[in-house]
Each structure stands twice: as structure tokens, then as C-alpha cells.
Write a structure and sequence with these properties.
Structural class: alpha+beta
Distance between the termini: 30 Å
Largest sheet: 8 strands, mixed
RNA sequence: UCCCCGGUAGCUCAGUCGGUAGAGCGGCUGACUGUUAAUCAGUAGGUCCGUGGUUCGAGUCCACGCCGGGGAGCCA
């Protein structure tokens, strides 16, 4: 079936990024113990249970604002029958100078200097240099430190020492080194440049490198911030189905699955379901994976991506535009607040992100066409906005913009025409700066039954498949508005990534479903 | 579906006019008690994507195929 046309960005031009950039990654050192650790120490003390849970989790995500009380894990409780192995988070080592700590993690890097061996160990929370001195540990352990393959898992016990020579300010004077599991061969992903094809083939291992580490942490923070804003604003999270019924001729871009002998399809939007849910709960959102079987090979396209789709009963275009700029700004400000080391690791221009605050400039389709007059991107009224148009217009601003009121004929059937100008719809796209294109698409839904029936017939859509949706107009119809935000594109923009696939842990693209 | 680019050592790449296969990094061996992508010395490592063709001779030229990258269309 047809879906909202601008839930996600139109293509962005390669030129906007300075031409064809080679996908290389220098897998350099991850941030060591830095302000992440210190910042954490300054955050409000968590409940005992929370602290306990984090110790168990071994350096899990940083605390977010309102955090639910975690379950008590009895089996791992210190008072239980199982003694827990000590495990100190590298992030917290700065607070343990002079104490003995046990770091369990992976050998990130190794340098040797005669009877000294420097091991950089990472545990997900940070990296710390462990110094192994011949004589300070049994000879066999020194030998192991000297020979251990990178990315082998280890348990290192030692005294935390403040040392200005160490990258994070502290290092570990090792008294005991255990190789938990040695790599069976040299780790495939090295510290130098690699091509994107190789990195994606080794994605499960590449994940351990700095860029993926930083990106996934930012992604997690973005997800958290988006939910946080909506939850605080009174929205109810409603999970949309992934299996959807055979719906329309537009199934060419849907993944078909065998549903007990019947055809079914992987969802490409939860929007229509959210409209139903909004009639129960008022303000709702879904946040989950969506699937598009399009053979698009661009840095903006994934075949599986996550979309945040709020829907507001009795909402209108102005409200929806306000929510768009609010959630995007909130996500950016949370990332700025909590992910500085990650942004630094990614080389992101933080100043550009700091400008991202409401209000975003409102640009009507008419205004945009006016701006494009005389430029190579000029198009006649009525033609759809493409990447050249988006880039040319967004380049005139220093923050995301809201482009609204597109021609009715180029938009999806369910979008509501502007009563004052039926030739345009009350829809809006949020276009990111720097050629990242469309992050969000949305607007008011057509609520008039007769109009929808007319549009469905006009576009030759199978009416039967839409009967349930039409029921929403038959039984207490209301004005409704909402939008879809593409998570990977948003994260790509915030992180300054080259490709949306970098924003997913295990991206699915036209030519990749492995690993 | 279309257009462009690519496939040579584990990785990233160079390879001139068609004439014995190269570099950096990584690996291995050794040296080094403060290294930060350490440094220094030595060393090993090749189905030049595949098939066929042209040629005395093909990594190089031609055809077809396979795989990958970027973009267009389309889509979000």
C-alpha cells in the first residue's frame, strides 16, 4: 500500500558532501577515560538497586533522566549463593586512584618496550592503559601480555595510578593478567584504513572500533531523547505491527512473507495504525523497524530502518511542526549534553549542532520555488522536491528547516488539502543541513470519508484493504496529524556520518543481509 | 530498471607502451623500562575476481559473466 511520501528524506547529493568521499575508517584509539567518566561521577546518585544493576551490567549506558527501577537480580546478588566476579568499569577508574581494580575487557592495543608492555584494554565504557612490568607479574603472564593477540578478552588486576602520561589520566599497574579467551587468529579489523565493503563484511567485529562505538552510543541517546520528550509530553507509546496484510499494488516495495500460506508483508509504516490508536489514546507514537524492498543504492537508503511516528488526534499542521522541531532539538541537545566524547571521536562539528534550536525556519513550497528561481535546481510549480531542491534551499539556513504545503497531486492520498488552497496539502518535511536531506515527513491527515474514498478510487488502490482505515472516518472521525522521523538519517546527520548504514549496528541494504 | 567506478599480498592501494609482481600498514623473528597508530633491524607472504579470446608473450587489450561501491529513477 501507499505510504506517506516524505517520512524520510529525499536523496541528498554527493556534491553536498564535497563529492565522492571514500569510505575509509581509521580505527584509531577510542576515547579513554575522559570527561565521560568525570561527568558520570557528577550525576545524581542513583538508587542502590540501580548502582547494583549497573555493576552487574558492567558499565552499561549512562543514566538517563527518569529511569525505571530495574529488577533485582537475585541470582547475581552478592548475598546470594553465587559470588560475583569483581569488575570495575574503566569509566569509573578515575575515582579509584590508589585502589586495586579488576578490568575485564578486550586488548585494544599493545606496545612493548623491552621489559615493559603496554596494553590498552577496552570494556565498552572506555579504554585504559595497563602497564605490565617484567618482574611485577609471573614470567608466564608477562610473556602472555607480550604475545597476546589484539581483541583477545582479558581480565587485568592492578593498582589504579594517576599518570599524566596516560591517555585518560589514569593507568593500571598490573599485578595479575589472565587471558580469558585468546583470539584464534589475528583480528581481521586493523587500526589502519579499510574499505567499506570489508568493514561491512566484518561488521560484527568492526563494531568494536571507535566509530561504531561512538555512533551506537549516540544512536541510543537519540532514541532515549525522542521517547523522553514524547513521554513527557503525554504521548502513549503504542507498538505497531510488523506483519501487515496484503494491501495494495504498491507491494512492489514491500517484503513479502509467507504467513501460514497467506501472503503478508513487512510493515513499511505504522502510521495508519497510529491513527487508530490516537482515537483511543489521544497522543501516541510508535518507534520500531520498517522495511522497504526498494532497490535503492544510496547512502541514504536502508531496506530496514527505524522510524518514530507520533500521531496526534485533533492535531493540526502547526502543532505537528512544533513537535518536529522540538523532538529534533531535544535529541540534539541531549547528545550534546551526554555524548561529547562520542561526537569528538566522530569528528563532528559541535558548533553546528549547537545552533539546532527552535524555531526552525518555515519555508513554504511556494517560497522554496521562489528561492530556486535562476538556480540549477529550479523546477516548475507542481513538480516534486528532489535532492537538488532540498539541498539548495536548506543551504540557505544554518539549522534544519520545515518545508510545508506541497502540491496535493504529488503527495500521498491521505494527506489533507489546505482548505484555503486545495491545490496544496497541509504537509511538512524537516530537511537537515549539509545535504543530509529529509529527516521527517508528516502533516495533517485527510479526515473526510468521501474525500478519502475518492482519492483511493482515483489512485486505483484496493478499497477493501483500506476498509478498516476508512472506519476511522466513519466512527467519530477527528482531525489528525503526525509524522515519521527516520532514525538512521537523523543519527547520520547528528554524527556527521557518510552513510546511513553506519547508524545501524547491523545495517540491511540492497546487497547486504550479512552478518 | 538505468548510468558511472572498481576487483592485484591479511588490509589499503600502485603497477608506465603488452615483456620476471610492488609499496605502506599488518604478521613473524630480534632489540628496547614510558610507549601513545612507538621506534629500529631482519623476514615471510600472490588463483592479479572467473571464463573465453587476441598475441611469441596478458595484471595490462577484447567479449561475456560474477561480486562490490556510488548515483539516478523510485521511494521514506
Amino acid at each position: 500500500m501507499e505510504t506517506e511520501e516524505h517520512l524520510l528524506p529525499q536523496p541528498r547529493r554527493a556534491e553536498a558532501l564535497g563529492g565522492r568521499r571514500r569510505h575509509r575508517d581509521r580505527v584509531a584509539q577510542p576515547p579513554g577515560l575522559d570527561d565521560a567518566s568525570r561527568r558520570l561521577a557528577n550525576e545524581q546518585p542513583a538508587a542502590d538497586a540501580l548502582v547494583h544493576a549497573r555493576r552487574i551490567a558492567g558499565g552499561g549506558p549512562r543514566p538517563a533522566t527518569p529511569e525505571p527501577r530495574p529488577p533485582v537480580l537475585r541470582s547475581a546478588s552478592p548475598s546470594g549463593t553465587h559470588a560475583m566476579a569483581q569488575r570495575d568499569s574503566i569509566r569509573d577508574l578515575a575515582q579509584k586512584v590508589g585502589q586495586t581494580a579488576v578490568v575485564r575487557g578486550w586488548v585494544y592495543h599493545r606496545r612493548t618496550a623491552g621489559k615493559l608492555c603496554f596494553l590498552e584494554v577496552r570494556d565498552g565504557s572506555g579504554v585504559v592503559q595497563a602497564v605490565v612490568k617484567k618482574g611485577a607479574v609471573p614470567d608466564a603472564q608477562f610473556e602472555a601480555a607480550d604475545k597476546v593477540r589484539l581483541e583477545s578478552s582479558v581480565a587485568v588486576t592492578g593498582t589504579v595510578r594517576a599518570d599524566p602520561r596516560a591517555a585518560g589520566g589514569v593507568e593500571l599497574s598490573v599485578s595479575d593478567l589472565q587471558v580469558v579467551s585468546a583470539c584464534v587468529a589475528d583480528f581481521p579489523v586493523g587500526k589502519k584504513e579499510h574499505g567499506i565493503g570489508f568493514l561491512m563484511e566484518e561488521r560484527h567485529l568492526y563494531l568494536r572500533s571507535r566509530r561504531p562505538w561512538a555512533t551506537l552510543r549516540v544512536r541510543a541517546e537519540v532514541e532515549r531523547a525522542l521517547r523522553e520528550w514524547l513521554d513527557a509530553a503525554g504521548y502513549t507509546a503504542v507498538d505497531a505491527p510488523i506483519f501487515t496484510p496484503s494491501a495494495a499494488e504498491g507491494t512492489a516495495n514491500l517484503f513479502r512473507v509467507d504467513y501460514f500460506g497467506e501472503p503478508a508483508f513487512l510493515s513499511q509504516t505504522g502510521q495508519l495504525y497510529m491513527e487508530a490508536a490516537a482515537q483511543s489514546l489521544g497522543k501516541v507514537y510508535c518507534f520500531g523497524p520498517t522495511f522497504r524492498a526498494e532497490k535503492s543504492k544510496t547512502r541514504r537508503h536502508l531496506t530496514e530502518f527505524w522510524m518514530l511516528e507520533p500521531e496526534i488526534a485533533f492535531g493540526d499542521l502547526d502543532e505537528v511542526m512544533s513537535v518536529m522541531e522540538s523532538v529534533v532539538s531535544h535529541a540534539v541537545s541531549r547528545v550534546l549534553e551526554r555524548c561529547r566524547p562520542e561526537l569528538e571521536a566522530l569528528g563532528r562539528d559541535v558548533a553546528a549542532l549547537e545552533r539546532v534550536k527552535p524555531p526552525f525556519p518555515r519555508v513554504s513550497y511556494d517560497d522554496a520555488l521562489e528561492m530556486l528561481k535562476g538556480t540549477p535546481a529550479e523546477i516548475p510549480w507542481g513538480e516534486d522536491f528532489g535532492a537538488p531542491q532540498e539541498d539548495a534551499v536548506s543551504a540557505k539556513f544554518d539549522r534544519p528547516i520545515l518545508v510545508h504545503r506541497f502540491p496535493t497531486k504529488i503527495k500521498a492520498f491521505y494527506m489533507k488539502p489546505d482548505p484555503a488552497r486545495p491545490e496544496v496539502v497541509l504537509g511538512c518535511d524537516c530537511v537537515a543541513p549539509d545535504g543530509y536531506g529529509e529527516l521527517i515527513g508528516g502533516g495533517e491527515r485527510a479526515s473526510d470519508l468521501a474525500y478519502l474514498e475518492h482519492k483511493i478510487a482515483e489512485e486505483n488502490l484496493p478499497k477493501a484493504a483500506y476498509e478498516w482505515y476508512l472506519d476511522l472516518r466513519r466512527y467519530g472521525a477527528c482531525p489528525s496529524a503526525g509524522f515519521g522521523l527516520g532514525l538512521e538519517r537523523t543519527v547520520s546527520w547528528i554524527c556527521g556520518l557518510d552513510h546511513a548504514r553506519e547508524a545501524a549496528a547491523f545495517p540491511r541494504t540492497l546487497h547486504r543481509v550479512y552478518p
